[in-house]
């Protein structure tokens, strides 16, 4: 899960959509969902913040998480972007296979 914040909420959602598009294009994610409006309450620099943000759910495999974190560090507008990886214990078998197929390198996917 990755979140982004901008000076206005739409900027956040648009930034996340572009970030996810890049991940999908590079086969680091099968897909992503942008939730355009969430409210985040957190402590930062000694003060409690209360900000509108956008939230993304990124569907990928565990072996791509490190690359996604590195890319978020390089591209995200926050100094410390929220990137959380959560294990999925169950899924529809067809969906699981689709995620695997969409996140394989093209040379591997072509030989299947």
From TrEMBL:
A Pfam family it matches = CutA1
Q: Which GO terms describe its molecular function?
A: copper ion binding
An example Gene Ontology biological process: response to metal ion
At the top level, the lineage of the source is Bacteria
Q: Which family does the entry's similarity section mention?
A: Belongs to the CutA family.
Please identify the protein, giving its name as recorded: Divalent-cation tolerance protein CutA
Q: Which organism is it from?
A: Nocardia cyriacigeorgica
């Amino acid at each position: 899960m990755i979140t982004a914040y901008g000076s206005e909420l739409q900027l956040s959602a648009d930034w996340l959509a572009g970030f996810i598009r890049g991940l999908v294009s590079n086969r680091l994610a099968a897909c992503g969902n942008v939730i355009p409006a969430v409210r985040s309450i957190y402590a930062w620099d000694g003060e409690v913040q209360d900000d509108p943000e956008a939230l993304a759910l990124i569907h990928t495999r565990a072996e791509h998480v490190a690359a996604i974190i590195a890319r978020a560090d390089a591209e995200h507008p926050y100094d410390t972007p929220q990137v959380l990886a959560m294990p999925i214990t169950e899924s529809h078998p067809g969906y699981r296979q689709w995620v695997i197929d969409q996140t394989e390198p093209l040379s591997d996917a072509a030989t299947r």
